[in-house]
Design brief:
Elements lengths: L4 E4 L5 H15 L3 E7 L12 E5 L5 H7 L1
Parallel strand pairs: 1-2, 2-3
Length: 68
């Protein structure tokens, strides 16, 4: 099948750990994947496997830690 364009807006934490594998597999199959992530995150890091777009947020990592 032809690869298409995909936009992924994941949640941080275990949701992302599961979704990351799916996103990487889509990229391997020829899809152009853009992942929209917050600038403050626990586990979402830059990679060569897909395109990352980082958006600003109004909280710090300390506030994110304190929310849980």
């Amino acid at each position: 099948s032809d690869g298409g364009k995909r936009l992924v807006v994941p949640m941080d934490g275990s949701h992302w750990l599961s979704m990351r594998q799916v996103v990487e597999k889509l990229t391997e199959r020829g899809h152009k994947v853009v992942v929209l992530i917050p600038e403050v995150s626990w586990q979402m890091k830059t990679t060569q496997a897909y395109i990352l777009k980082i958006h600003p947020v109004s909280y710090t990592l300390e506030e994110l830690d304190g929310s849980l």
